[in-house]
């Protein structure tokens, strides 16, 4: 798993980038609209409910339960979202896109509300400590789902069954690796986000963990690619792992 997970993620990097773009676009639309339109804010949420949300509910969510209990619940929820984003890719990737868009819209609405109220710093101070790693993991899961859907839509010279099998073996590795990533993100959200530290310390802690994850995937993933490894389940260190005894072939996005 030391190299198979980063190899699989690196192999799917274009799809992961596509998933990221979809989420960011869905996030930016309501965030920019609400941040720049008082009328939109009024239409989105009544003033009384909005004040309660901004002043108590949003921040209180992170400290309403003991850290261990909250971290476990967050891990379960994040794993569910990630699994849904991945597994739904079998339906040509359409449900995966829906998961990314819905989650992007939800975060975008919250961001827009806080920006409109002049509380942007507080919002990002609560989101970034865990969100950097958590959302990156969601993007990776979404990318895996899109790859699975693309194997069904455009299998290339292979039979669809073979294309799905090849891509599925890489996606399984990604899903197994993401379990640990979501666990770490849950611990960050349960213990670091609500911690009584300065904002820079909480965000800095989350950023360090995030950079470490990116470095791990980037360094090991690129090295694995240079040696012909794609991260498929059962792939040998020499990079040959097809069940039919053939060398693994990259599924290019076409």
UniProtKB/TrEMBL annotation:
Alphabetically ordered keywords of this record: Membrane, Transmembrane, Transmembrane helix
Pfam families for this protein: SpoIIM
TM segment ranges: 12-35, 81-103, 123-150, 171-188, 200-219
Signal peptide as annotated in the record: none
Region entry Disordered, spans: 231-254
Domain of life the protein comes from: Bacteria
InterPro entries per record: SpoIIM-like
Record-given protein name: Stage II sporulation protein M
């Amino acid at each position: 798993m030391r190299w198979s997970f980063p190899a699989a993620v690196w192999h799917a990097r274009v799809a992961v980038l596509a998933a990221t773009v979809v989420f960011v676009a869905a996030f930016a639309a309501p965030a920019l609209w609400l941040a720049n339109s008082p009328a939109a804010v009024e239409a989105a949420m009544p003033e009384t409910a909005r004040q309660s949300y901004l002043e108590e509910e949003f921040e209180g969510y992170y400290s309403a339960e003991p850290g261990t209990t909250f971290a476990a619940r967050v891990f379960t929820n994040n794993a569910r979202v990630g699994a849904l984003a991945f597994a739904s890719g079998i339906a040509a990737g359409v449900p995966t896109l829906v998961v990314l868009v819905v989650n992007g819209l939800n975060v975008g609405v919250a961001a827009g509300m806080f920006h409109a109220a002049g509380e942007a710093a507080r919002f990002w101070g609560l989101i970034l400590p865990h969100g950097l790693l958590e959302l990156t993991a969601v993007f990776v899961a979404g990318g895996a789902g899109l790859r699975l859907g693309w194997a069904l839509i455009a299998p290339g010279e292979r039979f669809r069954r073979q294309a799905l099998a090849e891509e599925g073996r890489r996606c399984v590795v990604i899903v197994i690796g993401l379990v640990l990533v979501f666990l770490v993100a849950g611990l960050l959200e349960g213990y670091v986000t609500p911690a009584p530290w300065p904002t820079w310390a909480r965000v800095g802690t989350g950023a360090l963990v995030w950079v470490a994850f990116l470095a791990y995937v980037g360094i090991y993933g690129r090295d694995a690619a240079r040696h012909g490894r794609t991260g498929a389940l059962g792939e040998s260190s020499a990079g040959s792992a097809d069940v039919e005894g053939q060398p693994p072939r990259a599924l290019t996005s076409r």
